[in-house]
Amino acid sequence: MAFMASKIRSATFKDNRLHSLKVLFFFVSITILITAGTAYYVLGSSARKALIAVAQTREMQHAKTGSAAISSFFQLYQNSFLVLAQDENLMSPNDATRQNELDQFIKIWRKTIVGEVILLDKNGYLKNASFPGPLEKVSLANRDYFQWAKTAKQGHFFIGEPLVAKAGVFKDQYILPVATPIIVNDHFEGVLTSSISITKLAENYILPLQISPKTRVYIINPKQVVLYTDDPQFLGLNYSTYVKTHPFLGSSIVLNIFEEKIASTESGQLDLMIPDFPEKKLAETILTYVPIFYDKSHLILIVTIPTDEVLGFFAPIYINQLAFLFAAFFSILILTIALIRFGSKQKT
After folding, report:
1. How far apart are CA 196 and CA 178, in angstroms?
2. Does the model's pTM come out above 0.90?
3. Contact 135, 166 (CB under 8 A)
4. Which residue ranges form the domains of the chain, and what is each CATH number?
5. What is the pLDDT of residues 292-323, one digit of tens each?
């Protein structure tokens, strides 16, 4: 009887030990899974925020660098342009002499973003131009820069509002006209004018700084007219008008925020849910806006990049981490099952 009782106690002890082992490994597995999942979520969220913050910083730095480079170009070109305007050969009665002055000047600047340099007479008609071919009989006397030049002093420099060129190598494109008066013996004799391509500004100073192939660059004026974009269908459109006629989910809120921010002359960033042009699908987007100052006015540089694009290169890391998490969990699960089976065999 004592032997039988001892055997029963031994079997009961093994059963209890086996049950305890099952419970232990069950709770260990669940604890590891929950802990790993929580750590993965917390660390993943922190990494996502950190990566977006890095992208925002880089985008802002690049946008400000491009804006500063454009402003520096304006200053450099102004100095060179004013030297040309005061060259006495420019008012020579000899047409070839005047033409040579313009041709030599444009050789220096043609490889930049300057299209041509034009000499207008006091009535606004083309007198000489650096571009080849016959001069068109087009009067530019109604342009704001010409009206300004008629009362300006020698050595003064003007950068006008963006407009579509009527003539020259940038004809029918958005340009910034620059001008200075030609003064001879205190009399107004004409205007020296030149055009700066807004498209070339973006291509030379902004596009090389893109941080992603999906980075979108826009240059607009304070009235929100799009002067540059890589999507031709939006060129010349008013952004506010377009959004109002092509609404999307939350467009009124987005538009109010956008208009408020760009009304100032400060730089900033917005995290918005807006259409990702040209696909036009709503996407979380980092939008950076930076003013480009010139003369007494400014343009607004806008750079956008979808958040998913920023996180794209981080996806393989997430996949590897997730694979490791599942591998660890299933390894523990298999080990638990093996130990339980081993305990069952020991019981028998």
Report:
1. 8
2. no
3. no
4. 74-200 (3.30.450.20), 212-310 (3.30.450.20)
5. 988 778 999 999 888 877 666 555 655 666 66
